[in-house]
Amino acid sequence: MKLDPRTKLFLVVAANTMIFSAPYAYSMPMVAAILVLLLLEKKWKFMSVFFPIYVMAALCFDYLKQLDVGMIGTLIAATVLLICRMMPVGVVFYYIMATTRANEFMAGMSKMHVPNKATIPLTVMIRFFPTVFDESRAISNAMKMRGIRLFSLHTLKNPLTILEYRLIPLLVSITKIGDELSVAASTRALTPEAKRTCIVPIGFHVQDFVVFAYCIAVVVLFLLRPVP
Q1: In this model, does residue 38 exceed pLDDT 80?
Q2: HSE-up of residue 7 (Cα within 13 Å, Cβ side)
Q3: Residue 7 pLDDT > 80, yes or no?
Q4: Which of the chain's termini has less CB crowding within 10 Å, N or C?
Q5: Single pTM value for the model
Q6: C-alpha–C-alpha distance, residues 28 and 134, integer Å
Q7: Angle CA(115)–CA(119)–CA(124) in degrees, nearest 5?
Q8: Torsion, CA 34, CA 77, CA 55, CA 90, rounded to 10
Q9: pLDDT at 25
Q10: pLDDT score, position 85
Q11: Exposure b/e, 49-86, CB count within 10 A at least 16 = b
Q12: Residue 111 to residue 92: CA distance in whole angstroms
């Protein structure tokens, strides 16, 4: 289901606001909306990892908060709560980056009259993180081809080998990606002073109004809830 970039930005603001400030009864509908959108985008592999971890973390937190668990239990409960709060936020941004092209995002920001000084860094970020994930996946495949496993007996005995096999190649790739994106931005004349035109057709459709209405309804219900 294709959404307008402006609808996705509104979804980010509404979802993150509810996830951080609202009880689970009101934040869970926003999480459910993101999950439905991911399912419509056929992100099955991502969902198979995120959903079980999130459900287990939520159940563990509900169980731990009812017990007198002491200092260590409190630290564990705080960690689980952090997972419950931060994972949905990460999922929201994953949805935006996985389903939004840079030209669509720039067109939407232009229609909202957002200055280029804010649009260009956000556009580069949208291009940067998916490229980093692809590079990380390529490094993992190269390690497997050489018989090197991240969680093998050898790496557990020598944890510093993770730096050699994973982090150092990734940092080198990140530096290269940053240089390439800078060159690409210069080639396309992405400067704060230039006014660019865009031929990407964007606009609001029925699905956009459905998402807007759903988010507004959840926020209104949260604001009108009876305060004890």
Answers
A1: yes
A2: 23
A3: yes
A4: C
A5: 0.72
A6: 30
A7: 155
A8: 30
A9: 77
A10: 77
A11: ebeeebeebbebbeebeeeeeeeeeeeebeebbebbee
A12: 22
